[in-house]
User: Which sequence fits this backbone?
């Protein structure tokens, strides 16, 4: 890392402290969603639409406060409402802001065939470049969180950008800006994990949630959106949050071994056919032998 | 040629009389299938590997290729299903084919005189045909899932995972079949390519490569070109 060689941590024979020591060099960003303090006000949904220039979509009423069943190509931020009955018979209204998780090992990017349609920045943001998108939808197959969505009019796929345009200017994402309870936080990955772990400990020790914990799934290399959950052992209660998400094994096979076996087979096939021609040459038609009378059969 | 008795022939004389091998309809359909397959292969390979993405650029660019690939796939399937209707009897595998399959090394090493007699299509052609036929059924089924990814709901996403593997693997098989087919019919077996252009082959060609078929058509010969 180029920055690492400019950061001095020890100096020989030096009186006093090391200049610059302990500077925060973390450049990975992270959004923390504390589901335990979310009130389901949907300010983040509105802020997302406002900032990204989409108009409000038609809502779907499904006996819940949820705006629609899942995120849409023009609705990237959706609070999932789930009424959960605990073992002791009490009810819990679980609310989880659903959006792109910005995986460190993004399945959408692994599956994408178009040059430059998906990029991952050093700060962890995974961003779609619709100019380069061909609309094949492979990212939708690669994503373990069901996030990328196809626009039939644009024939391209869209999703949350983690407000890359704001973050690159030193601003926090629009959803964070709008959150009235402070359940949304934005900062470096290290700070957010620290904050999340502190909050989870608080919940475990003081608030009667012994299973509270942080959702930062290692199966996708960790994510740049992390959750604090009351019940980290059962993330599936929170509107289908996968327990142990991975890039689908078939995407790995397809982009790994299958591709190289296929490439090898194609090249070997062409070489083999050329070798066959050199070794055995063309098949030529023969002359029909005359019949016993010496006539054409 | 109107002859009461067939003319005398000298040994080594070429028999240039022609017999019809492919009707005009069969040839037009063949070339529709060939062109659509080549388009599908080019655009498919573009989505297969970034190093081959330029294949999509030369036929109009990535989004255009993504839009047309499924439609052209339907056209190719239609062409193949029409062929199935026309040729399915000629493509039935018989005992001579099974004997031919055992003697395939002789075919590969150009000792064609040692092979059992073959009908209109030899066993290799039948393998090609049935290989393409069943491949296209699998490509169509998996292709619909890739065409409309969201038509398969999230709860059935395992079918999406299956479809990407099937579509790519089967496409690779068809590329193998395609390469062998093109090689054999253009440079390996002399007279084959012309038969798909002009529709005719010489009687000698029919006698050499498709002896049983020759027996059926030898009396329908017409003067050579």
Assistant:
């Amino acid at each position: 890392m180029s920055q690492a060689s400019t950061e001095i941590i020890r100096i020989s024979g030096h009186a006093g402290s090391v200049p610059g020591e302990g500077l925060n060099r973390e450049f990975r960003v992270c959004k923390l969603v504390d589901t335990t303090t979310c009130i389901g006000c949907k300010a983040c949904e509105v802020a997302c639409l406002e900032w990204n220039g989409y108009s409000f979509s038609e809502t779907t009423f499904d006996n819940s406060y949820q705006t629609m069943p899942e995120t849409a190509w023009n609705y990237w931020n959706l609070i999932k409402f789930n009424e959960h009955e605990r073992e002791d018979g009490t009810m819990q209204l679980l609310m989880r802001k659903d959006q792109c998780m910005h995986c460190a090992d993004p399945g959408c990017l692994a599956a994408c065939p178009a040059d430059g349609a998906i990029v991952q920045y050093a700060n962890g943001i995974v961003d779609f470049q619709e100019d380069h998108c061909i609309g094949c939808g492979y990212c939708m197959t690669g994503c373990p969180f069901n996030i990328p969505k196809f626009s039939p009019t644009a024939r391209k796929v869209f999703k949350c950008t983690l407000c890359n345009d704001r973050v690159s200017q030193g601003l926090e994402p629009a959803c964070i800006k709008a959150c009235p309870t402070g359940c949304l936080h934005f900062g470096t990955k290290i700070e957010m994990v620290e904050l999340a772990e502190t909050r989870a400990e608080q919940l475990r020790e003081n608030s009667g949630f012994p299973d509270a914990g942080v959702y930062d799934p290692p199966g996708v290399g960790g994510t740049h959106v992390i959750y604090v959950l009351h019940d980290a052992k059962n993330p599936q209660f929170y509107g289908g949050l996968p327990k142990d998400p991975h890039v689908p094994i078939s995407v790995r096979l397809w982009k790994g071994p299958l591709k190289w076996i296929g490439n090898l087979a194609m090249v070997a096939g062409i070489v083999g056919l050329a070798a066959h021609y050199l070794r055995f040459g063309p098949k030529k038609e023969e002359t029909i032998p005359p019949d016993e009378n010496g006539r054409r059969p | 040629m109107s002859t009461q008795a067939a003319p005398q022939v000298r040994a080594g004389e070429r028999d240039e009389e022609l017999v019809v091998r492919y009707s005009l309809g069969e040839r037009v359909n063949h070339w529709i299938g060939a062109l659509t397959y080549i388009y599908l292969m080019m655009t498919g390979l573009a989505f297969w590997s970034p190093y081959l993405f330029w294949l999509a650029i030369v036929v109009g660019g990535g989004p255009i290729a993504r839009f047309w690939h499924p439609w052209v796939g339907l056209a190719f399937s239609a062409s193949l299903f029409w062929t199935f209707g026309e040729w399915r009897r000629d493509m039935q595998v018989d005992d001579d084919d099974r004997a031919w399959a055992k003697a395939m090394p002789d075919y590969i090493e150009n000792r064609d005189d040692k092979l059992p007699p073959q009908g209109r299509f030899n066993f290799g052609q039948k393998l090609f045909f049935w290989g393409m036929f069943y491949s296209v059924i699998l490509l169509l089924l998996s292709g619909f899932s890739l065409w409309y990814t969201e038509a398969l709901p999230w709860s059935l996403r395992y079918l999406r995972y299956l479809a990407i593997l099937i579509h790519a693997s089967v496409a690779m098989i068809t590329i193998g079949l395609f390469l062998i087919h093109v090689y054999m019919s253009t440079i390996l077996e002399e007279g084959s390519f012309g038969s798909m252009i002009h529709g005719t082959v010489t009687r000698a060609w029919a006698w050499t490569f498709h002896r049983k078929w020759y027996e059926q058509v030898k009396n329908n010969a017409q003067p050579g070109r």
